[in-house]
Recover the amino acids of this structure.
């Protein structure tokens, strides 16, 4: 824990707009971050959270794969559970990415520029650092550097559960998902992945297969489930029926893999 | 010519020509409140089979909603509150905690049980007398979709009253809560460590947090203002200015403090009890 880390807060809506303005006019990442700092530091741009969260533990960046396996539960424990409407508030995630978890963001999603004409870094800011209050979507929430840690955890967290691998660890599914970025996309880029019973059945299957459950393989399973959900309401099915559907999807995915 | 959509493995009553009958949604009414969104709509049909499938319990009305901003989707079973010749009026309530911004809802009828040998009286001639074995969850009819905005009437990050209080963990307190009025921006509500942790765990139930902690804190604050405000001016304190404004909007300082606190917080006891009973019913 670093005592100089700012406690979690939210930015005002006008401060978020100012950040977008600063991004538009900045010629390089350094100038943008300096402008952002000037906006984020002003107390008039802050909104206190309803409950004080104190100073968080730092998030760490090590290795190339599974970087966030432990960061996600750590952030979730700090912020705590909250309802989905409030958790999709861009004002919260923007303060966390620019202030509270700034050191993590700079290492995990660095902003670099190859030459003065290169503006690709602005795309990364919009993708990983900055959420627009009027354009929060599933895709943006699972890409924003900090929001994704909370959201994917929220969608995969089972406390006091008897479900699959979460009996001993409420974050077991979370760690399973964060093993790879492609796995996050495969599961949560499709709406069918937002149905908790479907997500749990797919992750149970992935855990059972271990390294054999490649990202491509899981992607095919999700594609099949999406197809079924087009004409059948999967959400109303019981656990056994969903497990049977996942098994059918897995069979198809395996056949596809062996014929490829 | 027979429809060639290629999605459904069985004929579906919708805008295509799988089945020649009509099935459509009209008169959608959306009424958002702080707690939930009331959704009412009417389905009209001239199909001779669909209502008897519902009445027999083999199929149900379904409202599948999707909200991209909250990565949320769920299936609701709207209640039919009026049956008319050729249709029904239905309604459902969607919890505000689940949605933000745009919500899309699909109006459908789905099978709840396996239906063996299903065939529509008005199914397209190209199907001949073919029948279909349907599985639970299979979509039987699609009336269409509608989109609405989950208008938020309350912003917890900028609340009219919550911003006057700051909830702080106190290692010295063992039980209960204690208030400190010396801050300029907020009244500090000190909460014992264990209770503070429990309070945070209740973040999914702001109604309980308000009824259990904010209501007594506000009552004590109103009493402090009424008694101490005469002796020392409080005009330099932001929390006083905000609460004084709310008191004036809700009947003025001559009103009973209990009545004032409940009005300002929009009757939290009633809301909490109603929610508690609803969640017990959901558990059963």
């Amino acid at each position: 824990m670093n005592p100089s880390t700012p406690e979690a807060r939210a930015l005002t809506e006008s401060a978020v707009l100012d950040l977008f303005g600063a991004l538009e006019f900045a010629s390089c990442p350094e100038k943008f971050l300096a402008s952002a700092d000037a906006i984020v530091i002003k107390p008039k741009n802050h909104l206190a959270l309803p409950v004080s969260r104190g100073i968080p533990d730092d998030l760490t960046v090590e290795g190339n794969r599974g970087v966030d396996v432990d960061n996600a539960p750590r952030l979730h424990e700090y912020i705590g559970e909250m309802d989905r409407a409030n958790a999709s508030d861009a004002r919260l995630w923007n303060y966390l990415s620019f202030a509270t978890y700034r050191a993590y963001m700079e290492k995990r999603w660095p902003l670099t520029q190859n030459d003065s004409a290169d503006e690709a870094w602005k795309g990364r800011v919009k993708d990983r650092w900055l959420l627009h209050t009027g354009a929060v979507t599933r895709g943006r929430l699972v890409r924003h550097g900090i929001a994704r840690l909370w959201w994917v955890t929220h969608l995969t967290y089972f406390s006091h559960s008897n479900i699959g691998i979460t009996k001993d660890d409420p974050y077991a599914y979370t760690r399973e998902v964060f093993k790879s970025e492609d796995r996050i996309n495969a599961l949560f880029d499709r709406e069918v992945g937002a149905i908790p019973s479907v997500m749990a059945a797919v992750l149970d299957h992935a855990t059972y297969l271990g390294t054999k459950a490649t990202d491509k393989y899981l992607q095919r399973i999700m594609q099949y489930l999406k197809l079924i959900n087009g004409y059948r309401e999967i959400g109303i099915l019981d656990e056994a029926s969903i497990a049977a559907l996942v098994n059918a999807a897995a069979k198809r995915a395996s056949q596809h893999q062996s014929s490829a | 010519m027979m429809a060639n959509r290629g999605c459904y493995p069985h004929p579906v009553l919708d805008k295509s020509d799988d089945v020649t009958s009509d099935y459509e949604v009209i008169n959608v009414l959306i009424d958002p409140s702080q707690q939930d969104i009331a959704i009412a709509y009417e389905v009209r049909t001239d199909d001779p089979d669909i209502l008897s499938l519902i009445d027999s319990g083999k199929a149900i009305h379904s409202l599948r909603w999707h909200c991209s901003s909250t990565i949320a989707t769920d299936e609701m079973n709207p209640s039919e509150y009026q049956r008319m010749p050729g249709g029904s009026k239905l309604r459902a309530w969607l919890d505000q905690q689940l949605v933000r911004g745009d919500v899309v809802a699909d109006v459908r009828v789905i099978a709840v049980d396996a239906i063996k040998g299903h065939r529509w009286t008005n199914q397209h001639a190209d199907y001949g007398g073919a029948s279909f074995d349907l599985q639970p969850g299979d979509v039987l009819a699609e009336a269409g979709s509608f989109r609405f905005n989950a208008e938020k009437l309350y912003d917890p990050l900028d609340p009219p009253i919550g911003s006057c209080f700051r909830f702080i963990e106190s290692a010295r307190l063992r039980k209960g809560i204690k208030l400190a009025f010396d801050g300029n921006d907020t009244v500090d509500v000190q909460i014992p460590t264990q209770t503070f942790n429990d309070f945070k765990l209740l973040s999914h139930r702001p109604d309980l947090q308000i009824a259990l902690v904010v209501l007594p804190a506000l009552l004590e604050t109103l009493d402090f203002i009424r008694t101490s405000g005469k002796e020392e001016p409080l005009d330099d304190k932001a929390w006083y200015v905000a609460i004084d404004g709310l008191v004036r909007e809700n009947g003025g300082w001559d009103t009973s403090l209990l009545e004032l606190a409940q009005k300002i917080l929009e009757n939290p006891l009633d809301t909490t009890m109603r929610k508690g009973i609803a969640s017990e019913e959901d558990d059963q």
About this structure: Chain A has 14 helices and two strands. The beta strands of chain A are 10-11, 46-47. The CA atoms of residues 8 and 118 of chain A lie 33 Å apart.
